[in-house]
Amino acid sequence: MLRIAKLLAGTKFLLFVNSILYLGAFQADTFGQVANEREGFRGEYKYHSYVPEPTLCKVAYSDRHRNHLDVWQAKSTTPTPVVICIHGGGWNGGSKEQVGKYVHPQKLLDAGISVVAINYRLIKHCAELNPPVQGPMTDSARAVQFVRSNAKDWNIDPTRIGLTGGSAGACTSLWIAYHPDLAQPESEDPVARESTRVTCVAVIRAQTTLDPKQMKSWIPNSNYGGHAFGFGRDSFDAFLAARDSILPQIQEYSPYAQLSEGDPPTFLYYTTRPHEGLTGKDKPERDPTHSANFGVHLKQQADKLGVHCELVHPGANHPLHQNATEFFVALLNAE
């Protein structure tokens, strides 16, 4: 982390240079920015044409349903950093083949960074769990442990791991990045003994809280998240009414509640500007589930805690990094 701290400490001049180059215009990277996850999509997912063939395909990281991943190994004689991608889709759909919507795999490989894309159980597979969202989230955390356990075989540096994802996958990525280490040192399972801590996290259109009261205060027409805790898709009011009785569960799986001093550098990207005044009382958000207000409030808390956090959206003021790929290349390759 010292190399990351030195890099970030030296960025003030770069911010000035970027302010000249950026000119206030928003430049969206064609690759890895807009995540159009389709919840419940029933078709066949395929990698985009610009995504190279994986080195390893459908590697099982546990014996659970959908617990498999693909690996792209960067060519290097020394261990490489790795970016692990967690797909979006409301924890109800999506697939690892969406990796190209969040980062540009070839650019990462060219920069000497390996890539992993994972699948995980969806909420419909986790009805017996309380809350159901723990299935997708803990599966994803195990994938991090599994990658770390294979560091030697895959020529990966286990001290340089980045997380990315979109929407629900972004929420999961932040949760893993901020949650205290989930390693179980006494476990008989060698994978479970591995750390879940990461170097940095860069996400697209993240829900940064799953607390319905908090969501309503940030985005008044919020209607998302109840399904993660066993409520129906259209039962936000019931979710909100039950909030106090399940608050410990909500806080356990909300990135905002887990964020603490010393957590990894964070990059947040949204496709829309924050809503005027951050209240939305003048007009409702068109897409409250992916509102940039989520990012504004997380960044405010991160700033208070001294956690490096970059927030990028249309009209953002001179961003240091334009997209997740740039962020990873800079931080994971920092000396």
Automatic annotation (TrEMBL):
Gene3D superfamilies found in the cross-reference section: alpha/beta hydrolase
Residue stretches making up the BD-FAE-like domain: 71-269
Keywords: Hydrolase
Recorded GO MF terms: triacylglycerol lipase activity
Record flagged with keyword Hydrolase: yes
Transmembrane segments: none
InterPro entries hit by this protein: AB_hydrolase_fold, BD-FAE-like_dom, GDXG_lipolytic_enzyme
Protein family per UniProt: Belongs to the 'GDXG' lipolytic enzyme family.
Protein name per its UniProtKB record: Acetyl esterase
Annotated source species: Rubripirellula tenax
